C-alpha cells in the first residue's frame, strides 16, 4: 500500500464534514481550476469575484469563466447537501450548463460535431457515439469498489471522450468531486503548481488509455491536512 493509499485508508467518511471543507476551500478550487486553463487571476481576485464584486484588469470572458466555476461548485454543494447528486446524464448536463455557459460552443448538451486534442494522435469518439460512450462509462464506473478509483475513472474518461465542445476538464473535476463528496470524502484539488506534470501525464493517457499513472498522480494531490480533519 502506497503512502497516498495509507492516507485515504485513515479517512472516516462524513458527507457533512467533507462538504464543509469543500465550501471553505471553494476559492482555492476555483482559482486552481482557472489557472490550469491559463487564466491569470490571483486568489484574492477570485475570492472577490465569488463575493459578487467585479475585478478590473481582466477580460470579461475570463471573468465569466471564473464566475461560472464558482456557480458550478455551489450547484454541486446544494445537490450533495440535499442528497440529490447523481452521476447521471441529467445531472451532468445541468452541471455543464453552468460551468460552460457562454464559453463552450454549446453548453448543457453533448457536442454535435467532432473535436481533436492538440498535441495528441488520439481522436475522441464522434458525436454520434457519445450517448453510447456515456452509457459504457456508467457501467464501468459501477464496477469500482474504491471511491477514489471510481471518481478518478469518471474524470479521466470524461476528459478522454471530450463529451463537450469545451470545459471538459473542469466539468470532469466537478463530477469527480461530486462522487467524492457524496460518499463523504474531502475534495481532491489539482493545484496549478502541478500544471506541467498534469499536462505531460494527460498526453500519455490520451494516447494509451492507461489510467494507472494519472490515478497515482491524482491520489498524490490529496491534501494531508484535509485527511487529518476527516480522521478526527
What brief labels describe this structure?
Fic-like fold; 60% helix; 232 residues
Task: Describe what you observe in this structure.
This protein has 232 residues and is an all-alpha fold. It has a single domain (11-109, 118-226), classed as Fido-like domain (Fic-like fold). 60% of the residues lie in helices and 0% in strands. Helix 3 packs across helix 5 (60-81). The model has no long low-confidence stretch (mean pLDDT 94).
Short structural summary:
The protein has 232 residues and is mostly helical.
**The CATH topology, please?**
Fic-like fold
**CATH level 1 class label:** Mainly Alpha
Q: Output the number of helix runs.
A: 12
Would you list the SSEs in sequence order as H and E?
HHHHHHHHHHHH
Under CATH, the homologous superfamily reads Fido-like domain
Write the topology of this structure:
Elements: H1 3-9, H2 15-24, H3 26-35, H4 43-50, H5 60-81, H6 89-99, H7 130-141, H8 147-161, H9 168-182, H10 195-208, H11 212-219, H12 224-230
Amino acid at each position: 500500500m502506497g503512502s497516498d493509499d495509507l492516507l485515504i485508508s485513515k479517512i472516516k467518511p462524513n458527507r457533512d464534514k467533507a462538504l464543509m471543507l469543500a465550501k471553505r476551500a471553494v476559492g482555492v478550487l476555483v482559482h486552481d481550476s482557472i489557472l490550469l486553463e491559463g487564466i491569470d487571476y490571483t486568489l484574492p481576485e477570485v475570492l472577490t469575484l465569488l463575493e459578487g464584486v467585479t475585478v478590473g484588469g481582466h477580460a470579461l470572458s475570463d471573468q465569466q469563466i471564473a464566475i461560472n466555476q464558482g456557480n458550478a461548485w455551489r450547484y454541486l454543494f446544494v445537490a450533495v447537501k440535499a442528497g440529490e447528486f447523481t452521476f447521471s446524464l441529467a445531472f451532468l448536463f445541468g452541471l455543464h450548463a453552468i460551468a460552460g455557459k457562454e464559453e463552450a460552443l454549446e453548453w448543457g448538451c453533448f457536442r454535435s460535431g467532432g473535436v481533436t486534442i492538440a498535441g495528441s494522435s488520439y481522436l475522441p469518439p464522434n458525436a454520434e457515439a457519445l450517448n453510447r460512450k456515456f452509457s459504457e462509462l456508467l457501467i464501468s464506473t459501477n464496477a469500482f469498489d474504491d471511491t477514489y478509483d471510481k471518481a478518478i475513472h469518471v474524470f479521466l474518461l470524461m476528459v478522454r471522450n471530450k463529451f463537450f465542445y469545451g470545459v471538459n476538464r473542469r466539468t470532469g473535476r466537478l463530477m469527480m468531486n461530486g462522487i467524492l463528496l457524496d460518499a463523504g470524502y474531502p475534495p481532491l484539488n489539482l493545484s496549478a503548481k502541478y500544471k506541467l506534470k498534469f499536462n505531460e501525464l494527460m498526453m500519455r493517457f490520451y494516447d494509451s488509455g492507461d489510467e494507472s499513472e494519472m490515478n497515482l498522480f491524482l491520489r498524490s494531490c490529496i491534501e494531508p491536512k484535509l485527511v487529518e480533519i476527516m480522521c478526527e
